[in-house]
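Please review the protein record below. Tell me whether the encoded fold seems credible here:
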Amino acid sequence: MSDKTVVARGMVPGLASGMALVSRKAFTFAHGVDPSTGDVTDAHSDISGENVKGRVLIYPFGKGSTTASAWFLETVRLGNAPVAVVTEGIDLGVVIGSVLAKALYGKDIPLLSGLGRELFPATAGSKLSVDGTTGRIEVVLT
């Protein structure tokens, strides 16, 4: 990430910041995240055992069930959701869940798409500032 900033495509507006949690594999909230805790429970995930709560969740693309939006929304309702989601390809389940989070619960969870997978290692473990309107992802220097 040159200049510690990259621009992706803003899909759902909002501002957020948090520590990056990066998966290099396809990801799903449906049966992959426990909404009551935010724990990643998918045994096939490379971030199994991690927790999405308060994190900027980064993964290449969604997989699996069309119920991912409902699982995502339940994670939001219970207060265990990521603060933002950044993907390489568009994950419609999370787009729908994020839009509904705002409509139903007044929660802004920005969603960005189009982050090149080659940039994933540069974000891992970093604190990120994310703007879902402009698509900017910035590494916060501490």
Summary: The first strand starts at residue 5 and ends at 7. The chain is about 20% helix and 25% strand. The beta strands are 5-7, 9-12, 15-22, 56-59, 84-87, 111-113, 127-131, 136-139. The chain has one domain: 2-139.
